[in-house]
Amino acid sequence: MDGCAALCQDDPVAGIEPYSLVIVTYNHADTVPACLRAVAALEPAPERLIVIDNASNDGSAGVAAAHAGRPPVEVIREDRNTGFAAAANLEVRYVYCPASPGVPYCAGDGSGAACPCTG
């Protein structure tokens, strides 16, 4: 089981509804599909699923955009690799709104941890 599937199996979103989920990726074209499938299996499903591509050069953004799961994937492509922390900050600015108080996130290779943010 890859890291993202294990993360999703641990139910990091229990009690957070509605919520958005963000995947930060850099050159993870080979692992993003499994991560997106694991996210699609979550119950409840995220209201929004955003992939922030950190200037990958392996087609990660296109792989994510082609995913036909639920909810539809929104892809934000950065022009330069700013690192995981900067991308995570971008996701909080892009996603946060009162209608979606929870924002768990993980790395596109599944190595990150879900960090629900509230408030």
Descriptors:
119 residues; 4-stranded parallel beta sheet; Spore Coat Polysaccharide Biosynthesis Protein SpsA, Chain A; alpha/beta; globular; 4 strands
What does this structure look like?
This protein has helices at 3-9, 32-40, 60-65, 84-95; strands at residues 20-25, 48-53, 73-77, 105-107. It has 119 residues and is α/β, with parallel strands linked by helices. It has one domain (3-107): Spore Coat Polysaccharide Biosynthesis Protein SpsA, Chain A (Alpha-Beta Complex), CATH 3.90.550. The model is unreliable at 113-119 (pLDDT under 50).
Detail the poorly predicted runs: 113-119
Q: Give the C-alpha Rg.
A: 13 Å
Taken together, the total number of domains comes to 1
Estimated structural class: alpha/beta
Q: How many strand segments?
A: 4
Average pLDDT metric: 74
Tell me the span between the first and last alpha carbons.
32 Å
Estimate the global geometry from the Cα principal axes. Answer: globular
CATH architecture: Alpha-Beta Complex
- Element-level helix/strand string: HEHEHEHE
How would you name the CATH homologous superfamily? Answer: Spore Coat Polysaccharide Biosynthesis Protein SpsA, Chain A
Q: Quote the beta fraction.
A: 15-25%
- Under CATH, the topology can be stated as Spore Coat Polysaccharide Biosynthesis Protein SpsA, Chain A
Provide the CATH top-level class.
Answer: Alpha Beta
Largest sheet: 4 strands, parallel
- Count, helices: 4
> What strand line-up does the widest sheet have?
3-2-1-4
Share of residues in helices: 25-40%
